Every structure is written in structure tokens, then in C-alpha cells.
Amino acid sequence: MTEIANAPPLLAARSLSFSRDDRPVFEALDFEVGAGEALLVRGGNGAGKTTLLRVLAGLLEADGGTVAVAGTPVARAMRAGTMAYLGHLPGLKADLDAVENLEFLARLQGCRESQDVARALALVGLAAHAHLPVRQMSAGQKKRLSLARLWMSPARLWLLDEPYANLDLQGIELVNRMVRAQLDDGGAALVTTHGAYAAPPVRTRELALATVA
Ligand SMILES: Nc1ncnc2c1ncn2[C@@H]1O[C@H](COP(=O)(O)OP(=O)(O)OP(=O)(O)O)[C@@H](O)[C@H]1O
């Protein structure tokens, strides 16, 4: 118990800043999220939520500040190996089917213990579409396939950008169940939202980003 209480946060950002064309999108952000916690990143359209997650994931370079994972600062190029990022663009191969995509991604990112493609597809409700090419999938089916990919990732830290977008009610509940299971398992999740949906029922911190006029 003491050991867990003294453990460094799973993710800590210090003085994190990012600008575009010399205009700050966010400046000197300080926040952290511990094992078993979710951080809800709130803000209106254009507030910088996607930009923040892309900076954290190492897809964009910060102007300044540090990102530490489990107490160790991690350089931008190394961050993809420590986090699983669910973005707006699913990053799936359109010509491959669901199984082929997940097998390819498992080879690339590794796979969480005791998981496999068939189980992940069943979890997200795509078992009947295992051999459907991604280009023939609906937006919600693609999102579900991205969720299967997330579920298979061995990363403890999840960065979820508008995870509810394109999902029906069962899909929204699925995301919340997945987040809860990940946190129960000692992981953490950052979740962006416009605030339109209820936060998953887990221990949650909030980070509000202001829209720069
Ligand atoms: N590729 C880009 N090139 C230039 N400016 C960009 C780019 N992507 C985003 N921006 C700008 O950066 C700011 C933050 O955008 P971002 O997408 O991070 O906001 P957001 O909070 O995720 O918005 P939304 O809720 O609408 O998805 C906005 O002013 C946006 O116009």
C-alpha cells in the first residue's frame, strides 16, 4: 500500500508548451495522472486538446517542458513505446481486413498478455466482421477496430482523443468499460471531451484548456 502511495505518477507533464505560428496553443501546463486514474481533458473546439495528446504521444514536438512516464523523463522519439494513442484518424490499413490489421499492429506494438485478435474483436463487437476490409467498414466499425487495437496494446497509459466519436450507445458504454478495466489493472487514461458525455465512472482528474481568442 505504502509502495503504491509513494509511486511516481504514471504520467507527469511539467511546463509543457506548444505554439503554432508563434501563437501559443497551450503554455506552461503542469499536470499528472497516477495509476488507476483518468484525466479528463476538457475544452471547446480549437482549445488544443488534440494538440496536447499529439505532443504527449510524441507526434508533435513541444516548445518546452518535460514529459515523464512512471517518474522517468521520456524523449519525444521514445514516447510511442510507452503509450497507446487513439486519435481521430484510426491509422488502419484500408486494404486489410480486421484480423490482418490487428495481427500487423500486434507485431508492431506487441500484445498484452493473455490477449489475442479473436478475443479483442469479440470484445468490441466485431467478431462477425473479422474478414471485412477496413475500407468497407462504417466509421463506428473503424472506431471499434481501433478500440480492439487499443485493448491489445501492452501500454499502461492510454491517450484517448474523443473516444466516443462515431460510437452508438453500446460503443460508448464499451469505452467506459475498457477504461475502467485498464485503470483497475493499474493503468491510466487521458480522455479528451467537449463535455458532451459523462465521464467514465472512475477516479477522475480534470484539466481544462482555454480557447485562445
Ligand atoms: N495541422 C494544423 N495546422 C495549423 N493549425 C492547426 C493544425 N491543427 C490544429 N491547428 C490549430 O491549433 C489549435 C488547436 O487545435 P486542436 O485540434 O488541438 O483543438 P481541439 O481542442 O482538439 O479541438 P476540437 O474540439 O475542435 O477537436 C486550433 O486553433 C487549430 O486551428
TrEMBL record:
<dbReference type="InterPro" id="IPR003439">
    <property type="entry name" value="ABC_transporter-like_ATP-bd"/>
</dbReference>
<keyword id="KW-0201">Cytochrome c-type biogenesis</keyword>
<dbReference type="GO" id="GO:0017004">
    <property type="term" value="P:cytochrome complex assembly"/>
</dbReference>
<dbReference type="GO" id="GO:0016887">
    <property type="term" value="F:ATP hydrolysis activity"/>
</dbReference>
<dbReference type="InterPro" id="IPR017871">
    <property type="entry name" value="ABC_transporter-like_CS"/>
</dbReference>
<keyword id="KW-0547">Nucleotide-binding</keyword>
<protein>
    <submittedName>
        <fullName>Heme ABC transporter ATP-binding protein CcmA</fullName>
    </submittedName>
</protein>
<dbReference type="InterPro" id="IPR003593">
    <property type="entry name" value="AAA+_ATPase"/>
</dbReference>
<keyword id="KW-0472">Membrane</keyword>
<keyword id="KW-0067">ATP-binding</keyword>
<dbReference type="InterPro" id="IPR005895">
    <property type="entry name" value="ABC_transptr_haem_export_CcmA"/>
</dbReference>
<keyword id="KW-0813">Transport</keyword>
<dbReference type="InterPro" id="IPR027417">
    <property type="entry name" value="P-loop_NTPase"/>
</dbReference>
<dbReference type="GO" id="GO:0022857">
    <property type="term" value="F:transmembrane transporter activity"/>
</dbReference>
<feature type="domain" description="ABC transporter">
    <location>
        <begin position="11"/>
        <end position="213"/>
    </location>
</feature>
<dbReference type="Pfam" id="PF00005">
    <property type="entry name" value="ABC_tran"/>
</dbReference>
<keyword id="KW-1278">Translocase</keyword>
<dbReference type="GO" id="GO:0005524">
    <property type="term" value="F:ATP binding"/>
</dbReference>
